[in-house]
């Protein structure tokens, strides 16, 4: 396993980060099996584990907590996230001081630990001033609840704004960003990754397999089973009848040939690809089974050369998204018509 410094935090993390979104009711409901997968990842040298309070409504954090019992807590860099609604009622979501203080306490309880190494706000919150968010996260660092904090899936302009506000107000700043990044979703190369690099942020990328599309199971001319695996969770991303998916299938078929030409599988190539970018610190792998974990960790030894990267560029040009990688959030500027339309009298 290789290790890199996480931004300017001084924390060394493995280039593979174990993502736990598939642990719990959404993916693998067998807690004992999930604990074994986490232990196997730690034994492989992975010291970085990422979860979130909304994964299976807190169940994923509970599973991670079980897995850490009996292990030296100091040996694990533990990351989690908060933002999405959790439970019924108002004021149980977002990036406000009121909610994040409670969310961190709840995560600590489920994880069975006294501190979180990296706490991330899961998405932007247009209702909350970024100054308030940075302020409460800095207070949580001083209180010893968290060691560092970052953002997840923030647009480049909001990352830049957060750093400007932190500098003007004398606040602690986001140390990391967690964007979606894969061979099929390269949009962050245009702005997010250069911005994160400019500000010295650590970057841990998610969905290197493009929600499973680069698992090797999907290729032109082969029937797509929409009733199982990731396809069952988001069938619109896999259904060949949906516009755009045929382009993904065609690209996946060409990428399989690229992988085979350098002696690896498509998942191994897909996991290796984000780590080539100079802004990227670690790539999150999210196995559901032990077999998937064993397959993905093989990718740590794959280092694509320039010729291979040129072939990938020819299939999916730099900065190009073949699909919208974030199905959980869209900016208010697009979802709220009032933000896109002048009042009738001003048109």
Automatic annotation (TrEMBL):
<dbReference type="GO" id="GO:0005829">
    <property type="term" value="C:cytosol"/>
</dbReference>
<protein>
    <submittedName>
        <fullName>Aldo/keto reductase</fullName>
    </submittedName>
</protein>
<dbReference type="InterPro" id="IPR020471">
    <property type="entry name" value="AKR"/>
</dbReference>
<keyword id="KW-0560">Oxidoreductase</keyword>
<dbReference type="InterPro" id="IPR036812">
    <property type="entry name" value="NAD(P)_OxRdtase_dom_sf"/>
</dbReference>
<dbReference type="GO" id="GO:0016491">
    <property type="term" value="F:oxidoreductase activity"/>
</dbReference>
<dbReference type="Pfam" id="PF00248">
    <property type="entry name" value="Aldo_ket_red"/>
</dbReference>
<dbReference type="InterPro" id="IPR023210">
    <property type="entry name" value="NADP_OxRdtase_dom"/>
</dbReference>
<feature type="domain" description="NADP-dependent oxidoreductase">
    <location>
        <begin position="17"/>
        <end position="315"/>
    </location>
</feature>
<dbReference type="InterPro" id="IPR050523">
    <property type="entry name" value="AKR_Detox_Biosynth"/>
</dbReference>
């Amino acid at each position: 396993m290789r290790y890199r410094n996480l931004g300017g935090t001084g924390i060394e993390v493995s280039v593979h980060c174990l993502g736990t979104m598939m642990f719990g009711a959404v993916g693998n409901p067998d807690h004992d099996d999930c604990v074994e997968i986490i232990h196997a990842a730690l034994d492989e040298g992975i010291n970085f584990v990422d979860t979130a309070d909304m994964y299976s409504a807190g169940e994923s954090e509970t599973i991670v907590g079980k897995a850490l019992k009996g292990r030296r807590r100091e040996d694990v860099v533990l990351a989690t996230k908060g933002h999405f609604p959790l439970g019924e009622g108002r004021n149980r979501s977002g990036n406000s001081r009121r909610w994040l203080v409670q969310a961190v306490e709840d995560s600590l309880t489920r994880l069975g630990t006294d501190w979180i190494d990296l706490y991330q706000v899961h998405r932007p919150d247009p209702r909350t001033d970024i100054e308030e968010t940075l302020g409460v996260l800095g207070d949580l660092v001083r209180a010893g609840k968290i060691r560092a904090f970052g953002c997840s899936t923030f647009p480049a302009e909001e990352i830049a704004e957060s750093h400007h506000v932190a500098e003007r107000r004398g606040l602690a700043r986001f140390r990391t960003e967690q964007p979606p990044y894969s061979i099929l979703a390269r949009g962050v190369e245009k702005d997010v990754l250069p911005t994160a690099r400019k500000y010295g942020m650590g970057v841990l990328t998610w969905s290197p397999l493009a929600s499973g599309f680069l698992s090797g199971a999907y290729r032109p001319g082969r029937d797509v089973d929409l009733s199982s695996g990731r396809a069952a969770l988001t069938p619109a991303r896999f259904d060949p009848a949906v516009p755009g998916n045929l382009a993904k299938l065609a690209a996946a078929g060409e990428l399989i040939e690229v992988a085979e030409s350098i002696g690896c599988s498509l998942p191994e190539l897909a996991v290796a690809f984000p780590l080539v970018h100079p802004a990227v610190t670690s790539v999150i792998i999210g196995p559901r089974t032990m077999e998937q974990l064993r397959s993905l960790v093989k990718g740590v030894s794959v280092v694509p050369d320039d010729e291979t990267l040129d072939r990938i560029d020819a299939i999916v040009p730099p900065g190009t998204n073949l699909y919208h990688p974030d199905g959980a959030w869209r900016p208010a500027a697009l979802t709220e018509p009032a933000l896109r339309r002048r009042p009738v009298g001003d048109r």
